[in-house]
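Interim report, section 4.2 (structural modelling).
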Amino acid sequence: MPFTGLFEWMDALESSVALRQSINAYPFLLTLHLISMAAFAGLIGFWDMRLVGIALKTVPVSKITERIFPWMIAAFVVTLVSGFLLAYSKPLTYHENFYFWVKNALMILAGINAGVFHLTTEQTVTQWENDPVTPRGAKIAGIASLAMWAVIIMTGRMIAYSALVPEWWVALNAAE
Amino acid sequence: MSLLPLFQWMTTTSLAQYFSATTWSMPIVQIIHLVAVALFSGAVIVVDLRLMGRGLTGTPIRQLAKATEPYLILAFVVLLITGTPQMLSLAMKQYYSPFFWWKAEAMLVALILTVTVRRKMCNMDDSQLGSFWPKVVGLTSLGLWSGVIIGARLIGLLS
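Predicted structure of the assembly:
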């Protein structure tokens, strides 16, 4: 398992222990994480659906970027910080969790997808942003993003079902 | 009139029994429910931001509401379908949770607001809207639906 030493070090920190022992911290952080996730995922969902060409078809893509992105990024920051603190409150518990790793891997891939889109198809956005039918690059980026964020949400929920994991994952943890 | 007999009956339904007895059924409905929460939230937020004079201000409110309405309705239907087995199998836990009643009340008021005042505003021309009341409605709508999500999450955490 990667980063075992790092997670063990975090688990022993005073602040991690304090968070873990606090009665209200975990419910507060999880609720904050959920509500900011709903806002972020909802907004990025509509942005992606615009890229695919199935929603907000009359709104120029750059207008969505300009007017919706700030709210989306604000929600993402809250989701990220609350998510980090949730993991920080129980590092070793999350370290052993199959869905935690899948979720984080997908988030990295979603970020790469966004980066690739930004560096390629989005560079020509002024040529196609008013078209209800979007170019192939936008459609692919939008579909990939929608799929990844949907699975990220699902794996986030599945973290609570730590016993419902593949056999090979159980064997891997037992071997350590 | 006590609703306890109703909630007790819910736990005896075959759907509740099935969801309590099987391993994967509850996680599956919960993950679909959560994706639908995200879709619903997006549809609500895009329009509520516009009502508050934020977000896609270059787009007429009527156009924006019309564009997001199919997704709002679809998400709400999925939420009802996936929420029902959860409601039935966890009925007694919810009956005794103050957060469940908080969620239910917030949801009722939010629904009434959405299908009456908010819907009427979303069908108006931008020139007829004014600046004060749309902000009140947008903020109230966001607050109520946030309350629904918060209440729902706290049922499982603090009951």
